[in-house]
Amino acid sequence: MSTKALSDMQALRVEEFRQRLKAKPTSTEQSTSKPPSEPYDDAKLLEFLKLHKFSVDEAHAHYTELENWRLENRIEETYMNVDCKSFNRATSLHGIWIGRRDRQGRPIHVWVLRNLDPAEIAAYLHDAAELKASHPHHCESPTAANAILFSTLLEYFKRFTIPICNAVPNRPDAQKPVVSGTSIVDISGVSIRQWWQLKDHINEASKLHAKYSPDTLDQSFVVGAPPFLPWLVGAVQKWFSPSMMDVTFLQNSDIKKKLLEYVDADDLPKRFGGNLDWDYGKDPVPDDEVTAILEKDGRKGWVDGPCVLEDGVRVPVGTVNGVKRYTVDI
After folding, report:
1. Could you give the 3-state DSSP secondary structure of residue 98?
2. DSSP alpha helices (H): ranges in 24-83?
3. CB–CB of 212/69 below 8 Å?
4. In this predicted model, what pLDDT tens digit does every residue of 133-162 receive, in sequence order?
5. pTM score of the predicted model
6. Domain span at 232
7. Strand blocks (E) in the chain
8. DSSP 234
9. Which stretches does UniProt call biased (Polar residues) (predicted)?
10. Which end of the chain has the smaller Cβ count within 10 Å, N or C?
């Protein structure tokens, strides 16, 4: 991202933030000879600055805290070795990348709350407890078990989804790297009984995302709120912090028109008024440009489970029955 895309004040703060990080590298950067990908990218630094109203001191403290947390909990190692079944279950219970991008080139995630199954949530928490218990460094960590498993979803976003979106040729505003996504949260059809069954999981997911990956949050649309349940809108509003993202609540009559301002009709699922034949529970349906990147590895179509984009090529990682799928340098 060129600093020409920023205001003079923003560019000054970004550069000050970058120099602060170079002068005081995080534990992650000190511990490895391989620097993190684009560690001081303007767009990423700008997101942290926006979170803290352009206070370089606060942004630096937050950035450093998160990077050190990643090192202490060996998040990259955890992601490379996570059980694929556990990972896929966790993915199904949170926002899913549908393989499409919005008009700015950002990945589109969809979360349909009425499809969440309390039994699957219980299994997810069991998977998380097993993951924490299986590694000595996790056992000694004060980090909650579900936060460790949830972190693998954030790694997928950072090491696979975002690199793919940035690798698309002729993407919109190519000078500005994609660092965050657009989410559509569908709360239609959620009964009062189901809400009470799911609210703890939903609240926890929101807190984890805000705490461990606030820079990936950008824009969310909440659709399908029943007009006779105004309290539900109030409850959902508590999930989101205005400092982290723009949140728009859409009435049923406004959903299609508003979403098409941000998403092309061919990239918007039919359930929201678009043309895309995709629904919750199905594999993502990547567009032609994303498909071309994915299939450079010789495989056709979508590959589920954790993956990374290594030198522009998709590499499935994680384990199946304790056996690694592939090994790449982390």
Report:
1. strand
2. 27-30, 42-51, 56-72, 75-81
3. yes
4. 998 888 888 899 999 999 999 999 999 999
5. 0.86
6. 82-291
7. 96-101, 107-112, 181-186, 217-223, 246-250, 307-310, 313-316, 319-320, 323-324
8. H
9. 25-35
10. C
